């Protein structure tokens, strides 16, 4: 767990403070993406698919914020790497290895947290794909069983055969 007293991430006199502030922001954004994915998964599991489009919009919004955040993080890390005369491909582990105290601890904590969030997002995405695939397969099997026509009970208890084409519910009333 990060110790907020160990380093003040708002202290922009320290070149590592800006990177750490962006990392906090990126963690919050990843949490937002994970929340949106979890919401989608719960909607799919519950069968309340009418909310799926709304949940997907929330996910798309979160992903757009994430893309912007990734650009900001990359720019901040690159600016710090340039300032410290580090190679272009310097990553968080590289920064942590050369940073003065308390920054190695802080950077490694962020790195661990970010990796954990990405793993959770990966798992949630896999679950959603599995649920969507199963739903699509069930729909396909149902449509295959319909064939050219299907039978159903009428209002008077008789059996009627209907064509397997889109019909309006009120046409049958």
From TrEMBL:
<dbReference type="Pfam" id="PF05130">
    <property type="entry name" value="FlgN"/>
</dbReference>
<protein>
    <submittedName>
        <fullName>Flagellar protein FlgN</fullName>
    </submittedName>
</protein>
<keyword id="KW-0282">Flagellum</keyword>
<dbReference type="InterPro" id="IPR007809">
    <property type="entry name" value="FlgN-like"/>
</dbReference>
<keyword id="KW-0966">Cell projection</keyword>
<keyword id="KW-0969">Cilium</keyword>
